[in-house]
From TrEMBL:
GO-annotated molecular function: acyl-phosphate glycerol-3-phosphate acyltransferase activity
E.C. numbers: 2.3.1.275
Gene Ontology terms describing biological process: phospholipid biosynthetic process
One Gene Ontology cellular component annotation held by this UniProt entry: plasma membrane
NCBIfam families: glycerol-3-phosphate 1-O-acyltransferase PlsY
Organism: Candidatus Marinarcus aquaticus
Record keywords: Acyltransferase, Cell membrane, Lipid biosynthesis, Lipid metabolism, Membrane, Phospholipid biosynthesis, Phospholipid metabolism, Transferase, Transmembrane, Transmembrane helix
EC class (word): transferase
Protein's name according to its UniProt entry: Glycerol-3-phosphate acyltransferase
Bilayer-crossing regions: 12-32, 64-84, 91-112, 118-143, 155-172, 178-199
Amino acid sequence: MDFFSHTTIQFYIAAYLFGSIPFGLLLAKLFAGVDIKSQGSKSIGATNVLRVVKQTNPSLAKKLSVATVLLDALKGTIVLLVALSMDVSQATLWGIAVLAVLGHCYSVFLGLEGGKGVATGLGVFIVLIPIPTLIGAVVWAFCAKVLKISSLSSLLGLITAVIAALFINNGLGVQSNVPMYIVAFIIIYKHIPNIIRLVRGQEGKVA
């Protein structure tokens, strides 16, 4: 049991469990009475919340979508902020970030299924690489406005944030950039079906 009493391990477990909470699924069921896991893209993320709930209640759909983004982002942010207050190492902080995103994408509460990790990735990046993340968010917002394709806008914002971090953060406070790459890889990997549809010109737009 000494293993689980170690502070770093406790933070890792908390990060994964918090990351695993499917807020989009819970909000849609609680306030709209719909199961987003069986409709639309079947993702638990904000885009599918908007897409599915909009069919019956457009005004509620926007509110639930925004709430999903915020809560999914906070899943990683809250654990990181608590860890920061306890002065844990930078390596531990990045471990928390990776596990929070893994939890969202492969939730223990959903049989290791989950969302795409964009909002949770944003939540951990804004704590660890704030300036690059803000740059990526600007690119995402611009692309979302112009292209109206959620997946493409998210991927372009993510790639921008990673590239910006290489120039601005210079090492992220750990010995390599690997943790940041792992977070980015998880998110991109979860978007492979979207990427295939983008290449085929079949990816839908968000109205």
